[in-house]
Write a structure and sequence with these properties.
The chain has 392 residues and is α/β, with parallel strands linked by helices. It contains 13 helices and 16 strands. It has three domains: 117 residues, Rossmann fold (3-Layer(aba) Sandwich); 181 residues, Rossmann fold (3-Layer(aba) Sandwich), CATH 3.40.50; 80 residues, ACT domain (Alpha-Beta Plaits, 2-Layer Sandwich). Bound molecules: nicotinamide-adenine-dinucleotide (NAD) and 3-phosphoglyceric acid. This is D-3-phosphoglycerate dehydrogenase.
């Protein structure tokens, strides 16, 4: 049987090693029409007219707030991401950020850049001026980590190795992340507890309704005088105006982030980097390799791994005839699907059904070919969102 030349639209530059994970006969590019799948990094898809041909989205990264996940769920389209694949890159930038804040590195550099005159005059001015940039050391200081997922848990571990005390808060920590945490990490009961206890606070939560403006004026008011706030999560998690006010009032010592904004521009104690957290060769490759593999496995075999809106579902191929059905998580879906297959005279070879929140997903291998009529019958069942026939 000829291989299906599936089409993948890329909305950002995706690492070549990742793209190499797609089957060779796939057509991949930034101007592909009627794509079967989309690969994206941070491009904003909320206002995009996502073609009806799209069966899956792959986010080569962690955060999916740039993707209309709810709308895609209603169409039965899974959104994949790459959990943990860029965690080390972000961890390293956060450590760099803590050091920038602790040692006043950016203001110190700006001071030197502003000097003129002869070398002798410059040496004199640097010796006289350096005391303004004297800093603090990390051992013994307390780092507060809000969000102990892939990134937060790695940072907690690195900070312990640097001799820091670590206090963390995450109301929904996963078992994997909990296993990664050193026993020295103290568990806080709330965001407020972390803020009260920490000299450095770093944020590693997704941008959700519940985390928008998580760090606002009232919460900054609870922080230790002279604390350093680090935000390598998302811009919307922090109220920039409140941060600037706290910096000006001497409440916060520094704000270090990778989300530049006009409100922060030019402030002496803000370091606003480009959105660089995941921009390393290694992280870009890891993310692209992971998500391209997941996308291809879904398009070819219907298997789901690391989707933010669908359950993990995987079934070995034992028959050439497979149906993949996305459906609402409501009673009697499996019963209706099985009844339709039986009415069409098809024997079920293997079947798996799993759910996650409002979504459910069914993979069915049958012993003989599936007709177009049966696919239409299945698609017409109330609650069925998408049906794909995937002959091997
Ligand atoms: N700056 C960058 O380049 C960059 C790179 C990667 C990720 N990110 C951002 O960082 C976020 C976290 O990434 P990750 O890989 O660690 O994701 P993750 O899913 O592994 O971890 C997120 C953690 O946040 C926790 N959480 C959710 N709401 C919370 C709340 N209100 N209080 C405390 N904890 C809460 C979750 O339970 C989860 O454990 C991403 O969603 C993304 O927005 C930014
Ligand atoms: O959520 C993420 O993974 C980061 O924000 C990285 O975004 P990027 O892929 O645009 O670097």
């Amino acid at each position: 049987m000829a291989e299906t030349a599936r089409k993948i639209l890329t909305l950002n530059a995706i690492s070549a090693r990742g793209l190499a994970r797609l089957p060779q006969h796939y057509v991949v590019g930034g101007d592909v029409a009627e794509p079967d799948g989309i690969l994206v990094r941070s491009a904003n898809m909320h206002d995009m007219d996502i073609p009806a041909s799209v069966r899956a989205i792959g986010r080569a990264g962690a955060g999916t707030n740039n993707i209309p996940v709810k709308k895609l769920s209603e169409r039965g389209v899974p959104v994949f991401n790459a959990p943990g694949a860029n965690a080390n890159a972000v961890k390293e930038l956060v450590i760099a950020g803590m050091l920038m804040g602790a040692r006043n590195l950016v203001p110190a550099l700006k001071f030197v850049e502003g000097l003129g005159g002869s070398d002798e005059e410059m040496h004199k001015a640097t010796e006289a001026g350096k005391k303004a940039f004297a800093g603090i050391e990390l051992p013994g200081r307390t780092l507060g980590v809000i969000g102990l997922g892939a990134i937060g848990s790695h940072i907690a571990e690195a900070a312990i190795r640097l001799g820091m005390q670590v206090v963390g808060y995450d109301p929904a920590i996963t078992v994997d992340a909990a296993w990664r945490l050193p026993s020295q990490v103290k568990r806080a009961e709330s965001v407020e507890d972390v803020l009260r206890m920490a000299d450095f606070v770093t944020l590693h939560v997704p941008l959700l309704d519940a985390t928008r403006n998580l760090i606002n004026a009232q919460r900054i008011g609870l922080m230790r005088p002279g604390a350093v706030l680090l935000n390598f999560a998302r811009e919307g998690v922090v109220d920039n105006a409140a941060v600037v006010e706290a910096l000006d009032a001497g409440k916060l010592h520094a704000y270090i982030c990778d989300f530049p904004a006009n409100a922060l521009k030019g402030h002496a104690r803000v370091v606003a980097l480009p959105h660089l957290g995941a921009s390393t060769e290694e992280a870009e490759e890891n993310c692209a390799v992971m998500v391209a593999g997941q996308l291809a496995d879904y398009l070819e075999h219907g298997n789901i791994l690391n989707s933010v809106n669908f359950p993990n579902v995987s079934m070995a191929r034992e028959s050439a005839f497979r149906l993949a059905i996305a459906n609402a998580n409501v009673p009697n879906m499996v019963g209706q699907i099985s009844a339709a297959l039986a009415a069409a005279g098809l024997n079920i070879h293997n079947m798996v059904n799993k759910s996650k929140g409002d979504m459910a997903y069914t993979l069915v291998d049958v012993d003989s070919a599936v007709s177009g009529d049966l696919i239409r019958t299945l698609a017409a069942i109330e609650g069925v969102l998408a049906v794909r026939y995937l002959p091997a």
